[in-house]
Amino acid sequence: MASLSFTSQIGGKDASWLQCRPLGFGRCAERVRFRVFASESPTHPDLSVTVNGLRMPNPFVIGSGPPGTNYTVMKKAFDEGWGAVIAKTVSLDASKVINVTPRYARLRAGANGSAKGQIIGWENIELISDRPLETMLKEFKQLKEEYPDRVLIASIMEEYDKAAWEELIDRVEQTGIDAIEINFSCPHGMPERKMGAAVGQDCALLEEVCGWINAKATVPVWAKMTPNITDITQPARVALRSGCEGISAINTIMSVMGINLNTLRPEPCVEGYSTPGGYSCKAVHPIALAKVMSIAQMMKAEFRDKDYSLSGIGGVETGGDAAEFILLGANTVQVCTGVMMHGYGHVKKLCSELQDFMKMQNFSSIEDFRGISLEYFTTHTDLVRRQQEAIRQRKAVRKGLQSDKEWTGDGFVNETESMVSN
Ligand SMILES: Cc1cc2nc3c(=O)[nH]c(=O)nc-3n(C[C@H](O)[C@H](O)[C@H](O)COP(=O)(O)O)c2cc1C
Q1: What is the pTM of this model?
Q2: From 3.90.170.10, 3.90.550.10, 1.10.3210.10, 3.20.20.70, which CATH number describes the 49-376 domain?
Q3: What does the domain layout of the chain look like in residue ranges?
Q4: Were both Cys, which of 105, 146, 257, 262 would link to 268 (CB 3.0–4.6 Å)?
Q5: Residue tagged active-site, from 20, 28, 186, 244
Q6: 203 is catalytic
Q7: Where does the Dihydroorotate dehydrogenase catalytic domain lie (predicted)?
Q8: Is residue 322 in contact with ligand 1, taking CB distance under 6 Å?
Q9: Is the peptide bond before 148 cis (omega within 30 degrees of 0)?
């Protein structure tokens, strides 16, 4: 067996780390036994991933939004080295999409009223693409012709109308895109047309629409989830059971950025008025981690044997932010606001920071550490039990055994230690 010959290679080193540890969704021994030892770790850990059959040079994906809004910027993303690009969400009739300006408002940490603090939160009231579908499709086709080996994903959204969804899927697929992400999660605008989060928040509607989509689509389909729901695992489960190959989470969080204390008007302020928008950037990262953790636990428990994927989104600005999503089970990590703040070249920094993390931990591939932190989440009741047990054991170590009747089976080694003098 490979593991045995490898064990003999490392000779007298402690081989306890070769034991089966849960990796990815319950996959363990196969990859662990090939993990290389610290001194032998490759200088450049492998960042490539294969997700639903799509090979990407790294797990960093442009999230749907302004960074994927036209040919020029998507080309730039490929040239700078992004693992994949998800285009701005398109629908059949862009003339119904009417944007306003200003449409963004930002939150700064420690700004104290000045404009110098670090940007940590970003609200937008931007709708989906307002460019004609024909134009977007032409650009998808051109990109796929110029970058046949790179992964281009179309993001789509439509009204509650089977024929409209079928037409949209057919037309985007004809451009040669590699996969489709369904925007079931846009928090603002067009709920009256039963679009975006209006579907993602209603599991019955979602099941029906996912059924139409998956009966039609011939490429992998990712369902993008809204965090503006009590239990995000419910729509995620429905989407997977209805045939979607992957889950993306999260879209933006419903928010009101603030009220201007001079004008008494809310921000972003359009002709004196505003409307709640979607919150993104660093401030949403902990919330996104919690949502991705819940989805990953559900997928591990209910879909573990299948080739489903998970894409983590929310507040990624560093390789460490991405590593956290992967440690929870994400296959890929999307970045949207981070690109708007740092530009397309930021992917190089993200890759090198992720590789630094992998080197530090002796991981040679993404699959080496995907999902391994998931097992450290438990219930509060279990935390109490674990802490009481730890305190009991620490006390036993401190005081030593008072009488032979105190020996226990489970704590035997610690109890022995408590009475050793050196
Ligand atoms: C200005 C802006 C526009 C966005 N437009 C879309 C969109 O068209 N479709 C979509 O699925 N998500 C859209 N998003 C959501 C992002 O793809 C992402 O889910 C969210 O912003 C959280 O990630 P981030 O913190 O990296 O931005 C948009 C986000 C922003 C900031």
Answers
A1: 0.86
A2: 3.20.20.70
A3: 2-40, 49-376, 385-417
A4: 105
A5: 186
A6: no
A7: 47-358
A8: no
A9: no
CB 257 within 8 A of CB 107: yes
Which two three-digit tokens encode residue 91?
């629908």
Q: Is the CB of 63 under 6 A from ligand 1?
A: yes
296 lines ligand 1 (CB under 6 A): no
Is the CB of residue 138 less than 8 Å from the CB of residue 149? no
How many other β-carbons are positioned within 10 Å of the β-carbon of residue 314?
32
With vertex at residue 129, the alpha carbon angle to CA 308 and CA 240, rounded to the nearest 5 degrees, is: 15
Written as tens digits, the pLDDT of the chain (422 aa) is 233 222 233 332 233 333 333 333 333 333 333 343 444 445 789 999 999 999 999 999 999 999 999 999 999 999 999 999 999 999 999 999 999 999 999 999 976 656 678 999 999 999 999 999 999 999 999 999 999 999 999 999 999 999 999 999 999 999 999 999 999 988 776 666 678 788 889 899 999 999 999 999 999 999 999 999 999 999 999 999 999 999 999 999 999 999 999 999 999 999 999 999 999 999 999 999 999 999 999 999 999 766 899 999 999 999 999 999 999 999 999 999 999 999 999 999 999 999 999 999 999 999 999 999 999 999 999 999 999 999 998 887 767 777 888 888 888 988 888 777 67
Distance from the alpha carbon of residue 334 to the mean position of ligand 1, in angstroms: 9
State which H helix or E strand residue 239 sits in.
helix 233-241
Q: Where in 16-150 does DSSP place strands (E)? A: 49-51, 54-56, 60-62, 84-86, 104-109, 118-124
